[in-house]
């Protein structure tokens, strides 16, 4: 049976790397993101890729994404909830409420909407079940300075992961979370040149090849549904995470 997946934020960064890795492994993958052109670049060379421009913060757009996947393949076996944004930077009094809400809309509400739609498909399909992998962050554990919006949403992703895991048990739906620290992508390029530390200094931080994240997601995705990686943390070995601050 063809294994089918939905990957959000698939037009760049980790979403592109993960989406292409799954396609290389023989999955059929619906590639979701705001802009069609980068999604088409991710899909290039893969017949089993489905490009679906999507705003994860919009309920109707998310519904259309999963409708497209089910129409194309009849089921969804995997959701990789990857879409996200760093959002505003600053102390809490410097963060505009509109920017806070925009970050929550993408990182948290978007993840919930996609998980909600995936859960409904997985619960109703035959054979029943599937897997949801949420992209958390090192910021699901500890913050960087000036990152209240991003950090709050990533802590919330951990609660969403746990709730999905519990609520999915009766329907064969597994949920796990991957927390990533300093994978080398366009989004983290600045970290390698200089990142603000808890003591106020700015120092470059080590990064690691994003392909290792794809390998970790593949491992999680390829497990049978009676086994689950609940939380997996992968970082650059010497990044300031253990003992941060």
TrEMBL record:
Q: Pfam families per the record?
A: adh_short
Q: Which UniProt keywords apply?
A: Oxidoreductase
Q: Which InterPro entries match?
A: NAD(P)-bd_dom_sf, Sc_DH/Rdtase_CS, SDR_fam
Give the highest taxon in the source lineage.
Answer: Bacteria
Under PANTHER family, the record lists: 5-KETO-D-GLUCONATE 5-REDUCTASE, BLR5618 PROTEIN
Q: Which family does it belong to?
A: Belongs to the short-chain dehydrogenases/reductases (SDR) family.
Report the protein name in the record: SDR family oxidoreductase
Organism of origin is Pseudonocardia yuanmonensis
């Amino acid at each position: 049976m063809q294994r089918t997946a939905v990957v959000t934020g698939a037009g760049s960064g980790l979403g592109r790397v993960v989406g292409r890795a799954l396609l290389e492994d023989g999955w059929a993958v619906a590639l979701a993101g705001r802009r069609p052109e980068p999604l088409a670049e991710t899909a290039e060379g893969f017949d089993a890729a489905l490009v679906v421009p999507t705003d994860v913060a919009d309920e109707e757009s998310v519904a259309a994404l999963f409708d497209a996947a089910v129409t194309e393949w009849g089921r969804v076996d995997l959701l990789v909830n990857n879409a996200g944004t760093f959002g505003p930077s600053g102390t809490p009094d410097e963060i505009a409420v509109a920017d806070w809400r925009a970050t929550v809309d993408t990182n948290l509400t978007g993840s919930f909407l996609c998980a909600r739609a995936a859960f409904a498909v997985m619960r109703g399909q035959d054979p029943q079940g599937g897997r949801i992998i949420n992209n958390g962050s090192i910021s699901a554990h500890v913050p960087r300075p000036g990152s209240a919006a991003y950090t709050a949403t990533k802590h919330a992703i951990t609660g969403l992961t746990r709730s999905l895991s519990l609520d999915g048990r009766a329907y064969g739906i597994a949920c796990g979370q991957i927390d990533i620290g300093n994978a080398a992508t366009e989004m983290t390029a600045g970290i390698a040149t200089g990142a603000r530390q808890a003591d106020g200094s700015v120092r470059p931080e080590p990064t690691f090849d994003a392909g290792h994240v794809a390998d970790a997601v593949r491992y999680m995705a390829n497990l049978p549904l009676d086994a689950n990686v609940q939380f997996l943390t992968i970082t650059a070995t010497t990044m300031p995470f253990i003992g941060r601050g």
